[in-house]
Write a structure and sequence with these properties.
The chain is an alpha/beta fold. The chain is built from 16 helices and 11 strands. It starts with a helix and ends in a 6-residue tail after the last helix. Belongs to the dus family. It is an enzyme of class 1 (oxidoreductase). Its cofactor is FMN.
């Protein structure tokens, strides 16, 4: 059933006031391991008709989760991958960046596409167009902390207007026949944590799953993520809840799932330069055992394949530039002096980049393999 604007406002008023302010309490791993609940005791999460194969999800990240990276993370164990956000205004989709972000046909399903904006009808139309283009899940961005997004009353800025949140959710859910998910933060700032209220609005609107980043917009990515709010959200709703923020190891993933009761973890920055994290978490959650890290040979092969996919997707000129940040993430904790990254960033030709990787692995193969994964 589609709610009209007045009905959405009534639902907002009935959502209650509990949970506006939550304590940003961060638990130590030891405390979290003492939690009684276990992710292995529950069914795998479903998003509409889609049952995820595991509890590890790649978060949408602008400028990061492009098609090559999504495909790589899926191959390495991600149960669901979400695209970079697509701006809701379809009049701006003619740009090269937008056109590349809109390509998802041919990818393994379920294909999840994130849309961002602040106008309910514009977001609804963006959802319809993406569904027609092959999206199987629409994700609404209410979590991005970037100033350029929030200044346009989009992303996490929407959390300050719960009536508008309700109107957007109603409009997008009514516009498509595929599942709609939502990604939020715990609130705009410490004094206005409202994730529980927004979660109830989401469930009432027919949102199929909810991802919560354990920071406010004001925090951006500073400090530590807190999981009390995510645990409280899980208690408020019956739809799947995905815990996001500072999940960078298999043990941390297990701790967060146990403490919050969340149905899955969503990995963002922890996957940059470390796409093997997905299979490591999946293996640990399934067996309780730590999977061996990738060998030097596998790291070399993965980096070359990723580089090749970037050039095929973006073309020579843009591919060279996009590759700089991805290769930089791979090298981040293996290059303390930044010498390798500085050299790679000066390269201007495709062949030079491949030659660099060949020289790097031939000359210091063991050092690459022994490096600590980027977090």
């Amino acid at each position: 059933m589609t709610l009209k604007s007045g009905e959405a406002n009534q639902r907002f008023n009935n959502a209650g006031v509990a949970g506006i302010i939550a304590s940003p309490f961060c638990l130590s791993p030891v405390t979290m391991r003492d939690a009684e609940s276990s992710s292995t005791d529950r069914p795998l999460p479903c998003i509409g008709r889609h049952t995820l194969p595991n509890r590890v999800i790649l978060a949408p990240m602008a400028g990061v989760t492009d098609r090559p990276f999504r495909q790589l993370c899926r191959e390495l164990g991600a149960g669901l991958v979400v695209s970079e956000m697509v701006i809701a205004d379809s009049k701006l989709w003619h740009t090269r960046k937008s056109r590349q972000r809109l390509v998802h046909r041919g990818e393994p399903g379920p294909r999840s596409v994130q849309i961002a904006g602040g106008d309910p009808q514009m977001l609804a139309e963006a959802a319809r167009l993406n569904a027609e283009a092959g999206a199987e899940i629409i994700d609404i961005n209410m979590g991005c902390p970037a100033k350029k997004v929030c200044n346009k009353a989009a992303g996490s800025a929407l959390l300050r207007d719960e009536r508008l949140v309700a109107e957007i959710l109603d409009a997008v859910v009514a516009a498509v026949e595929i599942p709609v998910t939502l990604k939020i933060r715990t609130g705009w700032c410490d004094q206005t944590r409202n994730a529980e209220r927004v979660a109830r609005l989401a469930e009432d609107a027919g949102i199929a799953a909810l991802a919560v980043h354990g920071r406010t917009r004001e925090q951006r990515y500073q400090g530590e993520a807190e999981y009390d709010t995510i645990a409280a959200v899980k208690q408020q709703v019956s739809i799947p809840v995905f815990a996001n923020g500072d999940v960078t190891t298999p043990q941390r993933a297990a701790d967060v799932l146990a403490y919050t009761g969340a149905d899955a973890v969503m990995i963002g920055r922890g996957a940059q330069g470390n796409p093997w994290l997905f299979r490591e978490i999946e293996h640990f959650l399934r067996t309780g055992e730590t999977l061996a890290p990738p060998s030097a040979e596998e790291i070399a092969t993965t980096m070359r394949r990723h580089l090749q996919a970037l050039h095929e997707h973006y073309g020579d000129y843009l591919g060279v530039r996009v590759a700089r940040k991805h290769v930089g993430w791979y090298l981040a904790t293996r290059d303390p002096g930044r010498e390798w990254r500085a050299r790679f960033n000066r390269l201007e030709q495709v062949k030079q980049q491949f030659d660099f990787l060949h020289e790097l692995f031939r000359g210091d193969f063991a050092a690459i393999g022994n490096g600590t994964h980027a977090a």
